Amino acid sequence: MPAVKTEERGDILEIIRKIEELPSPKFILEQINRVLNNPHSSAIDIGNIIAEDVSTSAKILKMANSAYYSLPYEVSNVKQAVMIIGLQTLKSVVLTSSVMDTFKGGKALDKEYTESFWRHSLSAAILSKIIARRVRPSDLEFHETAFSAGILHDIGKMIIAAFLPGIHQNKLEYLNEYSVSEFEAEHYVINRAHNEIGRYLAETWKLPRSVADVIYFHHNPASTPGDSSLVYITHLSDFLIHDSGQSNYYGYSRHTTLLDERTYGRLNLEENYKDKLMEDLNNEYSKAETFLRFSS
Q: CB neighbours (10 Å) of residue 120?
């Protein structure tokens, strides 16, 4: 059993508060969200915002010119790229890019674990969006929120990996020795889990309450106050991906918390529909890898 220092079992929220600069998403994400929420906005308005950020502009242009879109011509204008990619996909790209950039400066960042983390998060985001389409077919905003929640549901793990490398290493050693979930390993090492740490970050970033609830309750959706649809969607996505072995990456335990027995009923899905969900995820995973490549 790996040795754990007594002080590392202290209140993790106090440790987080001592981090010199708590990460915050790019201002450009806030601007884009504001414009997207305006029904009178256009792709030109979005393009004007992105054009002011060199890094994001380059990523959007690379994506528009990638093999994924297979255009017969080169796209050299950001506004044109926005029209090709689409506003909803664009929002997902910018969110992913903003969050990934936030954690690039972490001390002694475990790069192999980081890659595993983003692969799982993007898979969960894609699958959550697939389920959201099934649950509320015509609610495009709900679909996009499901994607955002999937990206961020485990963000507390990245805080540990990026800013508390000693605790992160202890967790990996515990996972390597015992057949437990990361949730259980975190409780052993620091008496806290990533959902609590992630909620603290969500409150600091002033994320929507629905996304903060997903971060905190995705292992226990029945405890969610109010509308728990998004939490159950992410809970199901997370479970199916772990259960299938698709998150069997470095540092990522295949073991996860059990699926809440009310999940399929709560989402009005048949349990045998899970095979179709995983098939759809596999079909769209190339797009998830496109996000990973162009957002990093």
A: 22
Nearest 10 degrees: Cα torsion 158, 159, 165, 169? -50
Q: Which amino acid is at 52?
A: E
User: Quick one: 59 and 121 in the same domain?
Assistant: no
The stretches of 154-246 forming alpha helices (DSSP H) are 155-163, 165-177, 182-190, 194-205, 209-217, 229-244
- Same structural domain, 134 and 271: yes
Domain count, the chain: 2
**What pLDDT is stored for residue 34 in this prediction?**
75
| 154 contact partners, CB below 8 Å, separation of at least 6 | 117, 120, 121, 124, 194, 198, 238
109 and 250: one domain? yes
Report the pLDDT value the prediction gives residue 64, as an integer from 0 to 100.
85
Q: Give the chain's end-to-end CA distance (angstroms, integer).
A: 35
- Of 119, 90, 96, 145, the residue nearest 252 (C-alpha): 119
pLDDT at 204: 78
Encode pLDDT of 282-292 as tens digits.
888 766 566 56
Q: Give the pLDDT confidence of 203-238 residue by residue, as tens digits.
A: 877 788 999 999 999 999 999 999 999 999 999 999
> Is 63 within the bounds of a domain?
yes
What would the two tokens of residue 205 be? 């970033």
Q: Are residues 14 and 49 in the same domain?
A: no
Question: For the chain, which residues score pLDDT lower than 70?
Answer: 1-27, 105-108, 246-257, 286-296
Listed residues 88, 121, 137: the one ending a domain: 88
Cα torsion 103, 296, 29, 216: sign: negative
287 and 189 share one domain:
yes
Q: Model-level pTM?
A: 0.81
Q: Cα separation of 143 and 225, whole Å?
A: 21
DSSP 20: S
